[in-house]
Amino acid sequence: MKILVGVKRVVDYAVKVRVGADGVNLKNVKMSLNPFCEIAVEEAVKLKENKAANVSEVVALSVGPKQCQETLRTALAMGCDRGIHISTDLRTDYMELQSDAVAKLFQKVIEEKEKDIHLVLVGKQAIDSDCGQVGPALAGYMSWPQCTFASKVDLDGDGLLVERETDSGTETIKVPKLPAVVTCDLRLNTPRYATLPNIMKAKKKKVDTYKAEEFGVDLEVKNKVLEVYEPPSRKEGILVDDVDTLIDKLRNEASVIQ
Amino acid sequence: MISIAIRRFARKAKHDSIKGASGLSTAVSTGSRDEFAKAAPPMPVTLLTDDERMIQDSVRKWANHDLKPLVREMEKNELISPSIIQELYTQGYMSLEIPEKYGGVGMNFTSACITIQEISRIDPSIALMVDVHNTLVVNAIRFWASEFLQDKYLPKLATDSVSAFCLSETNAGSDAFSMSTTAKLSSDGSHYVINGTKSWITSAREAALLLVFCNADPSKGYKGITAFLVDTNSPGVQIGKPESKLGLKASSTCQIFFDDVKVDADHVLGEVGQGYKYCIEILNEGRIGIAAQQIGIAKGCLDVVMPYLNEREQFGQKLLNMPALQQQYAQAATELHAAEVMMLNSCRLKENGLPFVKEAAMTKLFASQVAEKISSQSIEWLGGIGYTTDMIVEKFYRDCKVGSIYEGSSNIQRQTIAKIMNSELEQ
Question: Could you tell me the CA-to-CA distances from B228 to A63, A66, A188, B145 in Å, in that order?
């Protein structure tokens, strides 16, 4: 089985972003591997370590600027075998390059470069765009089954048994046959650290770079972002002395009860 | 005509100098683009390579996530947990400069210092085990041990064997060369017999391998000092009780008793009688690692203090904005930055084969002073709560005190610096 893992370079989750005229200010901001992509990498590497899965290779794929090579290095240090970097200077935080184009780029990689992919693992969403669309869109374009928000992935004959987390509970989905696309949720696993020996080994692993324009995919913005602004700062609350006052305020001031 | 040409030349030169790096006055003044491109611009020592940054991120993550929860417990038990020691090996922290062919990570010295610094930010006791193992024992073996000894020990040191550096004795601290541990060559020349007691040995309780400095010929004075590699489980080796210390409590510090310990003659590190040279040279570098530890401690303090100052309010304002405190923490950060720049520069001097002994001594001296000052101030900035064990800063305050004592006391560092300054004067 050959696995393709999507890894996105995003603003580090701990950074407090600032919004400027052009949207979120990315200058000199710490960037990291998207946490959900990290979970996808961990799942791919775990499958590779599981002899029963018979994984021949795990390939990491990243779309973005030159610095994506560092993101790919982290994925390689965690245990991926090879990396593919699709190079573009378009902003990948939804401002310029959007999910549909990314899904189509993934499709091109699968159809033209890595023809025998059995499983695509991606994070459920990127923490900058929060779209969650690349996985499902890719599955649609490839006409492959998709399982989103996976909190557990098990091998099941020729396919998979996936537990899917939703707000109303967890459902178990059977994927009878691969290939398929699975998007990974928070509780799927705890990603390992890249140990120093693996970081050094990752240097020798192959990373192929292609230009995004090479694939003939329409990279144009489909949804134009008109404005980006910070949410209004929360006003200070008030303390009330009793339940009656609370109900009064909820009804007459906050207008949330009749 | 000429003035126009000069103006155009000057504009091009100015353009090049804006586009390019500073310090390239010769290249720019010829106006030659090729010269400019060829001359590699000097880079800031604080600019790490991609590898080094990855390593820094990785160690920081591990230390914060896996090490932090165990710090207080290890201090209370005065024991580095075996699971942490195992993790140190899995993560590669105990084989930082061991070549890959022996199972090591094969990184550079700067990466080792970065690792030590990042671990120290969370627990300097663990960092000390890592520091001594890598910068003193492993490197001494890499530099001077025979191929036989390297093949025998480096793979073990890379996978599971902790090591200890046995130089000091009760009556031989700064005056290490006055040591009284002896190594007598057997009549058939096949082995040495070691007798004596070493004191203040870090990681003595956990070490599987000891690098022991003994005098093999006291009649020659310090020129008889010879370094030996001794397995801890050799008959006659006894590890004493761990000292009860002010800080770095999890790190074991013990006496080691050598009672007619037999060591094969081929376990001499390098050459007989050269031990004094090896120990000076290895300590010259090892002290940069200690500096990294001290800097890590100071950073660990500020990691706690700065967010606190940003949250705590008194007299209707954040402590962070009070001018009196701003004066103090700005000064502290300045001195810390200076120490860090000195440390990184010492690393780069050493890596590039340039003289670094004076700079390394200055770095260790200064870093230990900065750590002591900042850890002390940090308790004050935190106020009453800084004095309690609820905050980690009181531990850092106790941990860093020995920084001005071990691996060359501050007085010895200043003496080393003065000696070199004197020799520079005579030139």
Answer: 55, 50, 51, 10
Tell whether the model's pLDDT for residue B36 goes beyond 60. no
Q: Please give the ipTM for the structure prediction.
A: 0.76
Residue A61: which of A95, A1, A107 has the closest Cα? A107
- Tell me the Cα Rg of chain B: 25
Tens-digit pLDDT profile for residues B192-243:
999 999 999 999 999 999 999 999 999 999 999 999 999 999 999 999 999 9
Sign of CA dihedral B114, B116, B118, B120: negative
> CA of A70: which chain B residue's CA is closest?
B50
pTM score above 0.90: no
- Of B427, B329, B414, which Cα lies nearest the Cα of B364? B414
Structure tokens at B185: 């060559």
A200 in B contact zone (CB under 8 Å): yes
Distance from C-alpha of A187 to C-alpha of B415, rounded to nearest angstrom? 58
**If you measure CA to CA, which chain B residue comes closest to A194?**
B58
What does the pLDDT look like over B78-100, one tens digit per residue?
999 999 999 999 999 999 999 99
Asked if the Cβ–Cβ distance from B50 to A70 is below 8 Å, we say yes
Please identify among residues 45-84 of chain A the ones whose CB lies closer than 8 Å to any CB of chain B. 70, 73-74, 77
Query: And the tokens for B73?
Result: 């417990």
Q: Which residues of A touch B64 (CB under 8 A)?
A: none
CA distance B121 to B298: 8
How confident is the model at residue B214, as a pLDDT? 98
For residues A241 and B317, which has the higher predicted lDDT (pLDDT)? B317
- How close B101 comes to chain A (CA, Å)? 12
- Chain-chain contact of B58 with A195 (C-beta, under 8 angstroms): yes
Distance from B398 to chain A by nearest Cα, in Å?
Answer: 30
CA gap B183, B39 in Å, rounded: 54
Question: Is the CB of B56 inside 8 Å of chain A's CB atoms?
Answer: no
> CB distance from A199 to chain B under 8 Å?
yes
B107 touches chain A (CB under 8 A): yes
Residues of B with catalytic function: 407
pLDDT over 90 (residue B273): yes
User: Which two structure tokens, joined as six digits, stand for B425?
Assistant: 């004067």
User: SS in 3 state form for chain B?
Assistant: CHHHHHHHHHHHHHHHHHHCCCCCHHHHHHCCHHHHHHCCCCCCCCCCCHHHHHHHHHHHHHHHHHHHHHHHHHHHHCCCCHHHHHHHHHCCCCCCCCCHHHCCCCCCHHHHHHHHHHHHCCCHHHHHHHHHHHHHHHHHHHHHCCHHHHHHHHHHHHHCCEEEEECCECCECCCHHHCCCEEEECCCCCEEEEEEEEEEEECCCCEEEEEEEEECCHHHHHHHEEEEEEECCCCCEEECCCCCCCCCCCCCEEEEEEEEEEEEHHHEECCCCCHHHHHHHHHHHHHHHHHHHHHHHHHHHHHHHHHHHHHCEECCEEHHHCHHHHHHHHHHHHHHHHHHHHHHHHHHHHHCCCCCHHHHHHHHHHHHHHHHHHHHHHHHHHHHHHHCCCCCHHHHHHHHHHHHCCCCCHHHHHHHHHHHHHHHHHC
pLDDT of residue B39: 65
Residue B50: other Cβ atoms inside 10 A: 12
Residue B26: band (very low, low, confident or very high) from pLDDT cuts 50, 70, 90: very low
What is the maximum span of chain B, computed from C-alpha positions, in angstroms? 91
* A197 and chain B in contact, CB less than 8 A: yes
The chain-wide mean pLDDT, for chain A, equals 93
